[in-house]
């Protein structure tokens, strides 16, 4: 299996937390359903499913362009693969720089045209293509290698065979994947009606507060972050964790919790570095540090 089973690239992606999340699922005996309301690339969820650590995963993303990729992987994988094969370059065959950049511009235009269509095959491919060929996977980041293509080529992160393998593997597991395109603030209050309290584990990884609009396809306002915290905190009877970039707004929003921690995460946008993040957990969730994820209590 590839290093991550997700077809997406994300700066500060949470795939590195997989051992820790798996540890928490074991510790809390929550092997039935794993839920991500801000799924993005869903690297942790997919690996848990493929490793038979959980029986089902729930992928939710309110961004229609991201949802369109998941929708088409689960419903039209062969058509998506055909589009991948049609790309005039690969990481092993860089192709012609000018042709590649013109192709990138075409896909950028298709993304702008189709980004609000959650079922568009063309939009799904354009979204996935830009994620694989933009700097750090950021939609507004511009092509890898820039317009000169001197030091790095746009093809550097576009491995056709790996992408096709991932898509086929996800499609093969479609009966164990529940996919939705719902605003998390509206979805969270509905979760107790749809999930058993015992056996479910929820991982909330909202867009960052400070750079959410720059790093992600969609972001939240300060009011949204506060409303989100209210809905999450109401799930007292479920096992869940929340991860965030350090920010006074978030520190205050989750101040009522006893399970409040800080840990170090490796980021890959612009340059590779380690930086602190917040981690919060429900009152019933058992927590311990595990391997590289060392939890330090957040001092009030």
Structural account:
By secondary structure, this protein is of the alpha/beta class. It contains 12 helices and 8 strands. α5 packs across α6.
Q: Can you lay out the helices and strands and say which pair or pack?
A:
Blueprint: H1 18-27, E1 33-36, H2 43-50, E2 56-60, H3 64-75, H4 77-85, H5 97-114, H6 121-133, H7 160-172, E3 177-180, H8 184-187, H9 191-194, E4 200-204, H10 212-215, H11 222-233, E5 239-244, H12 248-253, E6 260-267, E7 273-281, E8 296-297
Parallel strand pairs: 1-2, 1-4, 2-3, 4-5
Antiparallel strand pairs: 5-7, 6-7, 6-8
Helix pairs in contact: 3-4, 3-6, 4-6, 4-7, 5-6
Helix content: 25-40%
Number of strands: 8
| Overall body shape | globular
Residue runs with pLDDT of under 50 for 5 or more positions? 212-216
- Helix tally? 12
User: Pairing-aware structural class of the strands and helices?
Assistant: alpha/beta
Averaged pLDDT, please? 93
Task: Give a short synopsis of this structure.
This protein has 300 residues and is of the alpha/beta class. The chain has helices at 18-27, 43-50, 64-75, 77-85, 97-114, 121-133, 160-172, 184-187, 191-194, 212-215, 222-233, 248-253; strands at 33-36, 56-60, 177-180, 200-204, 239-244, 260-267, 273-281, 296-297. The chain has twelve helices and eight strands.
Descriptors:
300 residues; eight-stranded mixed β-sheet; 38% helix; 14% strand
